[in-house]
Design a protein that fits this description.
This protein has 418 residues and is of the alpha/beta class. The protein has two domains: 35 residues, no CATH class; 258 residues, Spore Coat Polysaccharide Biosynthesis Protein SpsA, Chain A. Helices cover 49% and strands 11% of the residues. Strand 1, helix 6 and strand 2 form a beta-alpha-beta unit.
Amino acid sequence: MSDFRNLGHSKLPIFSTISFTAVLLIIIFVCSFISNLSLQTVVLESKKISLNSFHEDQPKLRWLSTKEVLFSVTEEVDEEPETEDYTHFLTPFNGSDQERIDWFKKKLPGFDIFKSTILTREFDDRVRGFLGNEKCRVKFFMTWISPVRSFGGREFLALESLFNSHPDGCLVILSRTMDSFRGHRILRPLLDCGFRAISVTPDLSFLFEDTPAQSWFDDLTRGNKDPGEIPLAQNLSNLIRLAVLYKYGGVYLDTDFVVLKDFLGLRNSIGAQSVDQDGNWTRLNNAVLVFDKNHPLLYKFMEEFASTFNGNKWGYNGPYLVSRVVERMEQGQERNFTVLPPMAFYPVDWTRIAGLFARPVNRAHSKWVEAKLVQLSNASYGVHLWNKESSRLRIEEGSIIGRLVSKNCVICKQIYSS
């Protein structure tokens, strides 16, 4: 009997090891099964969430494909890794024309903005489906050729001011990076308030098709065009705004623009940035453009872009371009558009914009602030913030910009931390 007990005790570790191994295998199998089941459930739930969160009412679902939903779900799971910073399409410094062309041709396959995807192929359907809403009293367009993470509080305040003056307006942001779950979360507070805004991945081939820009774009994407030393994203934005207005009509705004007044009464208008002593404009700007679909001036702008493109001079394909074209047209007495004075869109020059961000420091300064606010309220449709100069400035409480933003916001959070 004692031998039997001893034998049992000697076998116990063996049985324990076998039992432990069996239990471990069962646990692994069950966990694997549950994990697979959970993953399927997450994907199914993600489909439901994406459909409900992207489009609240059924009519807007007509252009949303299942592939697009799956694409968005994948982005969310991957935390939307950003492999490209569009603001840094920077060619070799001090390189020759041929060196830049060779560099661009080599890098071209990695530039996502030129790639055809599910979202680019649905671009026109999505835009038309969105703008087809009869409630779109004014159609606005913006471009964002930068990482989604850099769309910050300052840009969001610009959107707030737009909808404060145009609660029945519709905003289309042409952006590959903002057309994502992360971008949608940025817009979500406005959407929850009932405002109509959407980010759409642009199809550049479609936008430039049947326009003077097509030949320039074809040469660029074939690697036969010198992109220049200026970041290509800047020049692409200059061209995209012309093409999207030409194809759809409406209002283009830079994202560093605080809207103060309704644009409904404006039509086929461009703003002067500066004037001479006699009140004649000396330079125009393309940060705000208001034009009908197929307007001939937009066509001429694109012709100028394609025929005179120079990627080595800042503003040459933007503000200077529109100034060149309009100056020639005025000499020929062709006028089917309006040039608005600087007070309309550019009431403060870029060299003085910093003064609008500072709070008043004495009584005289306070009086000047009050007088300036009255002037802007009466004469300006908005204020261009010249982001290149003001992006590092904090909006101080009591400043002109602080007062304007506070008056024209709709959510009104984090104004003075932007």
